[in-house]
Amino acid sequence: MVYVEGNIGVGKTTLLQKLAEKGYPVVQEPVKLWTDCNGVNFLDLYSKDLPKWAFTFQTLALFSIWHEQAEACGNQPIIIMERSVHSVVKIFALNQFKNGFLSLPQYLLLEKLSQMLSGRFKRREVFIYLHTTAEEAHHRMKLRARSEETGLSLQYFQQLQEILLGWMTKEEKLQLVVNASQGPQEVFRVVERFLQVL
Ligand code: DCP
Where does the UniProt annotation place the signal sequence (predicted)? Predict the structure, then answer.
């Protein structure tokens, strides 16, 4: 499993689209499901009221990412995924816990569920981290103007960035850090070179 991580808006989706065009087996994040789950837009509810919806949304993110991964696994020797069950907990839920939007029992439950779900995959795991400054990621998010994200502040991006940088220094499975301020084509080239020798 190759997991592509990074702040919101750094270009993970674009990278995975390019890899898919080249024939790599990729699993995109199930954002569509998050915006229409039996007619409910959970991403919107959550972005507008983090304290109320953080636990619901992170539970949805966790199970839907895991489900996509399980569906795709089959006999593929390598799968490239946008995010992972790990980042749901170690990045997003941790940030929400620090902000008081998740209680400790809720955070610990998500952590336990994530461990149970990821334990089902007996595959080698590798992380790729796409890095920009929080300011640049926030700027890109504004340019793409996803309606659900209009309320996300620069401070929120800075908090995620701080957690991502802390995670980077500890994560033994992190194998590639890419400067995602470069154009998407250059990011793609760096990642493709890495995948060829993986
Ligand atoms: N999100 C979240 N918690 C998660 C996963 C995602 O709050 N566990 C939110 C953050 C964004 C939206 O879902 O508002 C999509 O986030 P991603 O950063 O995963 O995907 P992007 O499409 O923003 O990535 P990129 O622009 O890099 O392609």
Answer: none
Alpha helices in the chain (DSSP H): 12-21, 31-35, 42-48, 50-73, 85-87, 94-98, 104-118, 134-144, 154-170, 184-196
Pocket of ligand 1 (CB under 6 A): 6, 8-13, 29, 31, 43, 58, 61, 83, 88, 92, 149
Total of domains in the chain? 1
pLDDT digits (tens, 9 = 90+) for 72-113: 887 677 899 999 999 999 999 999 999 999 999 999 999 999
Domain extent at residue 123: 2-196
CA separation, residue 16 to residues 83, 173, 184 (Å):
11, 20, 11
- ipTM summary value: 0.93
Torsion of CA 130, 136, 141, 145, to 10 degrees: -140
What is the rounded distance in angstroms from the CA atom of residue 8 to the CA atom of residue 149? 10
C-alpha–C-alpha distance, residues 131 and 134, integer Å: 9
Task: Determine the Cα–Cα distance for residues 54 and 102; give it in Å rounded to an integer.
Answer: 7
